Structures are given as C-alpha cells and as structure tokens.
Amino acid sequence: MGGAFIPMRRPGYKAAAAVSVSLAALAAYWPALRGGFVWDDDSHVTRPDLRSLHGLWRIWFNPGATQQYYPVLHSAFWVEHRLWGDAPLGYHLANLLLHLSACFLLYQVLRRLAVPGAFLAAAAFALHPVCVESVAWISEQKNTLSTVFYMGAALAYFQFDENRKPGRYAVATGLFVLALLSKSVTASLPAALLVVLWWKRGRVSPKADVLPLAPWFCLSTVAAIVTPWVESKFVGASGPAFSLGLAARFLVAGRALWFYLAKIVWPSALVFIYPRWSIDGRAAWQYAFPVAAILALAALFRVRNHWRGPLAAALLFVGALFPALGFVNVYPFVFSYVADHFQYLAVAAMVPAICAALALGVERLSPPGRNAACGCAAGLLILLAALTRQQCGKYRDLETFYGSILEKNPASWLAQDNLGVVLAGRGQLEEAVGHYREAIRLNPRYPEAYNNYGNALAKTEHWTEAGDAYAAALRARPSFAQAEINWGNAMNDAGRFHDAQIHYGNALNLVPDDASAHYGLANALANLGHLREAVPEYVEALRIQPDSPESQANLGLALAGEGLWKEALSHIDEALRLRPGYSEAHAYRGLALAGAGRLEDAVAEYRTASRINPRNADIHYQLGLTLRRLGRYSEADAEFAAARSVAEP
C-alpha cells in the first residue's frame, strides 16, 4: 500500500523518482543557496571563542556558551566551520541535504507502516513552502538535523518493535538522545510512537509498548524542564511579554493550531514574522478557536472505533506543535505567537495524513481516473516547488529579507529596527534613522531600537541626541549593558572621557566579564592620562578575549607611555601577529622604538604604517618628529606638510 497513488513497481522507478524530487528541491531552494546570513545566523555559526577544541568542550559543558543548549547542533556547526569557515553556501547545502535526508527517512517510516501515498507525502514534505524557513534559514539547522535523528529513531524503534533485539533498541535510544540534543521539540517522539502503535493495533500494551518507552519519557521530561530554563536565562524569554495567564495561553494555542493547519493546506502569504495577535479573554470570538479544536478532537475520538487514522494524525500534529503553542515561553513570542519553523516537524505529521486520505480516495477510482489523479499529484508537486522557489527568493540578501517582512507586516518593529541596522552598516545613516524611529513608534519599549538609534546619531556626531537615545534604551531595560558600552564609546569619540569612564563603569557593574567594556574603560583612562590605571583594564580585556589585536596594541601603547619599552613591543608584536597590516600597531611600534632610542627602526615602522594608511595625519606627524630627531629636516618638513594636508577638511 505504501506506493499507492504514485505507483513505483518498475525496477529503478523508485531511484528515478527520488532523484527527480531531489533535483526539484535543489531547483526550488536555489535562490536561498545563493543567499547569505540572515537574522541570528551569526549567533549560530561558530563564534571565534568556540572554534578551538576547548570551545567544543564549552559547547557541551557550558550551557551559556551558545544561544541555546543544543550541543549536537552546535557541534555540527563547529565541524562545518572547520570545513568551510564563514562561507554561507556550505551551511545552506548542509541544511538542504539534511532536509532531503529527513524526507527520505520519513518515506522509509511511512513505507514500514504501510501508509498509503508514502512517496507523495515525502515529496510534498520536501517541496512544501512552509518548510522554507527551516531550510533557508541557517540557524534552523536545528530543525532539519533533529528531524533526521527523530525519523531515524522512529524507524529503528519500529524495527525493534518487530524483532525485540536489544541492539535495535540501543540504536533507537541513541538516535533519540541525539535528536533531543539537537532540538528539544523532538521530546514528543515517545508519545508519537505510542499513538502510531495504537493506530496500527487498536490498543497499547503497558508491558510491550509503554515500558520500553519509559526511559524515553524520562529523557523527554528532562528536556521539557531544561529548555524553558535556558530560554528564560540565556535567550531572554521572560518579562511582561510572556506574562500570559492560563486562559490566554489556551486562546493562543487554539488559534495557532488552526493557523498552522491552514498554512499546510493553503500556503499563501507566508512571512518570516507574522503579526502578533492581541489576546483578549474578554473577546468572545477568540474562544471559537480552542472550542473548535476541542470539538474536532472530540468528534475524531467518537469515530475512533471505525477510523483511528484521523484521530492519530490529529494527535501527532498537536503533539509535534505542543512546545510552540504558547504553554512554554520561547523568545519569538515577543514579536509573534506563530512562525513557519515552529511547525516543521508537524508538517511531517500532517502531510502524510492528507496524502494518505487522497491515496485511499484514488484507489476507488477507475484506471483512467487514477491516471488523472497521478497527473494532478505531479502538478501539485510542481506548484509546491514553484511556491517554495518564490519564498526562497526572500532570503537572497538582508535588505530583501527584511523588506519582504515589512511588505506583509509593516507593523513589525523588529524588522524595522533590523533593516535600519543593515542600512547603517552600508553607511546609509539617514535611511537607517528613519527605520529606527519607526521601530520606536511601533514599540516605544524596545530598547535595541533606541540603542541602534543612538549609534547612528553618534556616527553623525550628534552626541547629546545620542545620549538621550541611550538613556531611553536603559529606561526600557536598566540591565542593558551594551547601551552603556555604546554610550561610553560615543563619549570617548566626543572627547568626553570622564563621561565615558562613568558609562563603562556602569556596564561593568552589569557584566563584569565583558571584554569590550574593560577595553573601552582602558581607552578612557588612557585618554585622561591615567596610564597606570588603564594597563590593568587592558590586561583584563585580554584575559577575557586574548585574541583581540586592538587590546594588545593599546596595551603596548600604554606601556610605552610608562616607559616600559620591552613589554610594550611584546604586546604590539602580538597585535601584528593577530592582524598583519595593522597600521596603528605599526605606528605604536614606531613610538615604542623611538622611545627606546632606536630611531631608524622607528622611522621604518612609521613608514610602513603610512603606506598602509596614508590618510592618518598623526602617523605623518610622528614620523616627522622622529625624522627631526635624526636631523633629517627636509624629510621631516615633508611629513609635517603631509599631516596638514590630510588633516585639512
């Protein structure tokens, strides 16, 4: 029965069909494969401080080292970074390969369970546009990877259920653990297995069925406890946005169920950030969603003795979605209660049910009708592939990505703010400021928008207005250390070093181990002439972030100011090792060499710095001073003239 609807009886047909679906998926996802990083991809692709073997150890044994505690996922990213570094194409290809692997394993599971329309279901899952968010967004490799382990564990468990061999059980359990450590939404698997066994047999044996899965339920319980804690402590899923009562959470859950089902059946108007619903327990119409869901489940329960399949499919669908229905706080609820990537696993539960119903209906048709149905199925897959390709086009670049969100959801303050960051990075500060202001208008309590607005104002030297923006960010979130650091940076740039010292100190009260705060404070102290106090701050910054060329170079400069030439040169040389061609470090090395009396060597360093950065007036000036000390007055005058020329507006 597994091949019903699209028959695969001729030798080689299965392989040809699988290759065809894979090629169709490659064509559909091609626009995304050519795209770069979006959203929080840079938080998932392995950071510099985690790229060593010690970093791999931290991924496993330090829950705060990564954005979420999914050590198998981040280990995969760690390996991938070793293979292709920061090149997005490698990650995109890996995610697509994992998605196709999940589709293949889904097909194997459906065939083993003799589910009608198995191939159509796997192909539809491979090409469904709702899956784009999980495949085109690199961060959601957690979905594709965990689903591969999920499907593999299910397949191994069904094999164990047939032969009761301990080896099969061990393999299934190992794969389930890997799934949980890739994404905890897979905790629903043991319950899903019991639902499937009930569907196949009409009953569940406590000894034969429940007892073997008892350890799995224990593992799921641990994951259900750890994940909300991590979301609250490290991701930020806490605060007023998450203070929903139980009744409100039921309203969210009921509406979300119908929303996700509708997107599977009719995948139109897909968007990365959907509008956040206003949940109001006083609005009677909002109760229609959970009531309708309860009535639908009750109706399916009543007919279970005649048709177990529909109830089993509904339970699998709800179970796969349960972690994202609002009963557990997850950070995206700040801006939307629903997201396409939340239902990746649920699509793998509902699509087979729909395809099975279609296949059973087709089996009752005459041969000509079946042929027509096969043609319609092929047309459906082509349509899904076309919609997926269209959706993937939105991941081409960051401006297109955020623009596509605002096109369908102009009230998305988060997209407004993030688009502003993109434009500011390109130097389009005026346009960026417009988006920051709109983000603030839409959500006056969003501190990141004020912080980014302050950064843009600081770049245009509007110091007072920038300070007002940083102050607003801190009113919205008093623990916002980065706003204090950025305020300190702005004050340093403005030459208000005492103010900068205050703000860096405030930041360090909030985050004592922040390297950038120690570095900024050291710079402020050095600019105030307090070199002796600056040195330990640079040292502390390097303890936290030892591979910072800026900290090494500035520590060297401070030591040179104290007359410690040998120690200064050691740190400056380390800065140049970390960043060859670092013009300021060459200049600092020239200063240290000149101080040590090695004037000819100093001239060589200054000339190297000047070649790298000929527009730095201070380098020309310091070179001129050194040349004058050597009695080479005409050369010195030329450098002073160059310094004046560069400094003139």
Computed CA radius of gyration, to the nearest angstrom: 30 Å
- Low-confidence parts: 1-7
Beta strand %: under 5%
Share in helix: over 70%
Q: Tally the helices.
A: 31
- CATH top-level class of the domain at 569-649: Mainly Alpha
Average pLDDT level: 94
The count of strands amounts to 0
Assign the structural class, choosing from mainly alpha, mainly beta, alpha/beta, alpha+beta, or little secondary structure: mainly alpha
User: What is the general shape?
Assistant: elongated
Instruction: Tell me the major beta sheet.
Output: none
- CATH topology category name of the domain at 569-649: Serine Threonine Protein Phosphatase 5, Tetratricopeptide repeat
Q: CATH superfamily name of the domain at 569-649?
A: Tetratricopeptide repeat domain
What distance separates the N and C termini? 80 Å
**Name of the CATH architecture of the domain at 569-649:** Alpha Horseshoe
Verbal overview:
With about 650 residues, the protein is an all-alpha fold. It has a domain at about 570-649: Tetratricopeptide repeat domain (Serine Threonine Protein Phosphatase 5, Tetratricopeptide repeat). Helices cover about 70% and strands about 0% of the residues. The protein has 31 helices and no strands. It has helices at about 15-35, 40-45, 55-60, 70-85, 90-110, 120-125, 130-135, 140-165, 165-180, 190-200, 205-235, 245-265, 290-300, 310-320, 345-365, 365-390, 400-410, 415-425, 430-440, 445-460, 465-475, 480-495, 495-510, 515-525, 530-545, 550-560, 565-580, 585-595, 600-610, 615-630, 635-645. The model is unreliable at about 1-5 (pLDDT under 50).
